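My hope is that you will study the protein record below before we discuss the fold together.
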Amino acid sequence: MVKSSVWLLLFAPLVAIAAPDRDAPTATADATADFTYGRAVVTGTVEGITEYLPISSTGHMIVSDRLLGVPKDPARLYAGIVDRQGRLVSQARIADDYLVIIQLGAILAVLFAFAGRLAGLLRGLSQGEPAARGLALAIVIAFLPAAGMGFLWKEAIAAALFSIEVVALALVVGGVVILVAEATLRLKPAAGDELGSIGLRQALTIGVCQCFALIPGTSRSLATILGGRLVGLSHAAATEFSFLVGLLTLTAASVYKMWSLGPALTQVYPAGPALLGLAIAAVTAFLSVKWLVGYVSRHGLGVFAWYRIALGGGILAYLGLA
């Protein structure tokens, strides 16, 4: 509960920074009017802190958008602003797509945090080292299941499940799953921390687990870390492999969103706030990554379970009272 209070205290000042002025005029026809520096600060901070923690970055950003009153009207279309397919861009799409695009900041964080590991991997691949080839293949295999499912059904899943109620329920369920996994896998011998020894079947299992992260509030990090633990990896190895798979997954998702927006990309996101959000996400994600590996190696995932249950339960209670 103390940990939950700390996180809630974190949200309070951030919400105050970016909360819209209730006396201000309503949003104009200019799509960029909905995207402010304050909102960029909040979104970047929430994304950076939560992306690699097993607590769901998307879920937290949906909650923060709700608290901030971010306008998301799917019926509001901006004249003259079209995506790559020639469709008019809606206010809701502008808001939701940025939650994916801002992941570029988290990608930069992993590139810096694991620069040595990535450089060694590339060097090993260029020299034909079996361990490097095995790790690269494992990362790709773990990436493919969620990538395929997301490409085929992401829109339908988002339309059906992109709500604060689903996020809250997924937070609670994920917390319970962590507690069960920590209790049952605690005594299971670890397969070792050498990522080059991850087998293709292990990688595929982790990839299938990542598919559950398509449900908002589940957490891609949680799904892949628990998947790694399920196939016998230690906490440290599972966490590091989760980061490497996330590097490919987040890059693909962000690039696809930017590509699909096409010419609308530079029209709907003003450069200043957009870049500020990315920079903040990069810095906070870097700090989060460096902290998480050491913490999980020593203490496991239990604290994140209780945080998820407390936050999800609190949201459900609030919605019930409201």
